[in-house]
């Protein structure tokens, strides 16, 4: 896969996404096992040795599980903010090849312009990203409990989006999970529901938006069918192709 992006896995068991400008190859998060990341990259024709850097959104284990192996064994640079780097060190107990960016400040990594912006989630300094390569803009925004006006502003004008559609609130309430879990997921520091995802998508929708991946679906408190139906209903007359970023396999690859 030369130029484009592809979800490698998305959900509470682990998250990773591949992004390539054609000459620069990134992972966004590395929450699957290192073995699974290598296997799933191979399915799209990419070897782990070709990865130039890993962007990290936040320090929860389902986003950093493979960093120790990828950072130490393969010496892949890990791009993160200072707060998340501290959280990764506390969790993994290793000094990794960090390269620190500042939340809210755009930076260039080779031929990709990256903008990390703040989101609301129960971690130290969580971010989402927009990535620009050539005349294309891709937004990757998951693990947020509430879509602020800042989030809306940064996701304007994207050609492609990866957006969280984590749960259906009625399914959360009906689940056998502990109340503390339910309160966390439904809070403004938790995860975005299907309807909230649809409302955010409706706000940032524009005629040139080409495709949206719905990501980080709860396996217990959501389903692909429900997510697609609820998000589409929030869009009303606005049309855009939707697909699910699955947990157990590689998702739909987008080629630029």
The CA-CA distance between the termini, in Å, is 10 Å
Remind me, CATH topology?
Metallo-beta-lactamase, Chain A
Shape: globular
- At the fourth level of CATH, the homologous superfamily is Ribonuclease Z/Hydroxyacylglutathione hydrolase-like
Instruction: Assign the CATH architecture.
Output: 4-Layer Sandwich
Name the helix and strand elements from N-terminus to C-terminus, one letter apiece: EEEHEHHEHEEEEEHEHHHEHEE
SS element count, helices: 9
**Largest sheet data:** 7 strands, mixed
Secondary-structure-based class equals: alpha/beta
Number of strands: 14
Helix content: 25-40%
Enumerate the strands of the largest sheet in spatial order, edge to edge or round the barrel.
6-5-4-3-2-1-14
List the uncertain runs.
Answer: none
Domain count: 1
CATH class: Alpha Beta
- Share of residues in strands: 25-35%
Question: If you compute it from the alpha carbons, what radius of gyration comes out, rounded to the nearest whole angstrom?
Answer: 17 Å
Write up this protein:
By secondary structure, this protein is of the alpha/beta class. The chain has a single domain, classed as 4-Layer Sandwich (Metallo-beta-lactamase, Chain A). It contains 9 helices and 14 strands. The strands form 2 sheets. A 7-stranded mixed sheet has the order 6-5-4-3-2-1-14. Strand 12, helix 9 and strand 13 form a beta-alpha-beta unit. The radius of gyration is 17 Å and the shape is globular.
């Amino acid at each position: 896969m030369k130029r484009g992006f592809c979800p490698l896995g998305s959900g509470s068991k682990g998250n990773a996404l591949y992004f390539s400008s054609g000459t620069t190859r990134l992972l966004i998060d590395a929450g699957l096992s290192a073995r699974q990341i290598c296997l799933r990259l191979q399915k799209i024709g990419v070897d782990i040795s070709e990865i130039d850097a890993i962007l990290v959104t936040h320090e929860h284990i389902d986003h950093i599980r493979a960093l120790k192996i990828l950072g130490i064994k393969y010496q892949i640079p890990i791009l993160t903010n200072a707060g998340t780097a501290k959280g990764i060190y506390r969790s993994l107990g290793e000094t990794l090849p960090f390269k620190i960016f500042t939340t809210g400040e755009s930076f260039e990594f080779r031929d990709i312009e990256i903008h990390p912006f703040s989101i609301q989630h129960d971690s130290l300094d969580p971010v989402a990203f927009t990535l620009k390569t050539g005349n294309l803009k891709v937004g990757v925004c998951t693990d947020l409990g509430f879509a602020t006006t800042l989030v809306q502003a940064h996701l304007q004008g994207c050609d492609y989006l990866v957006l969280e559609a984590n749960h259906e609130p009625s399914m959360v309430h009906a689940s056998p999970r502990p109340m503390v879990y339910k309160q966390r997921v439904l809070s403004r520091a938790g995860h975005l529901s299907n309807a909230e995802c649809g409302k955010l998508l409706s706000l940032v929708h524009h005629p040139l938006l080409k495709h949206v991946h719905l990501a980080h679906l709860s396996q217990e408190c959501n389903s692909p069918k429900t997510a697609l139906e609820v998000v589409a209903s929030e869009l009303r007359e606005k049309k855009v192709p939707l697909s699910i970023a699955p947990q157990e396999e590689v998702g739909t690859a987008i080629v630029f």
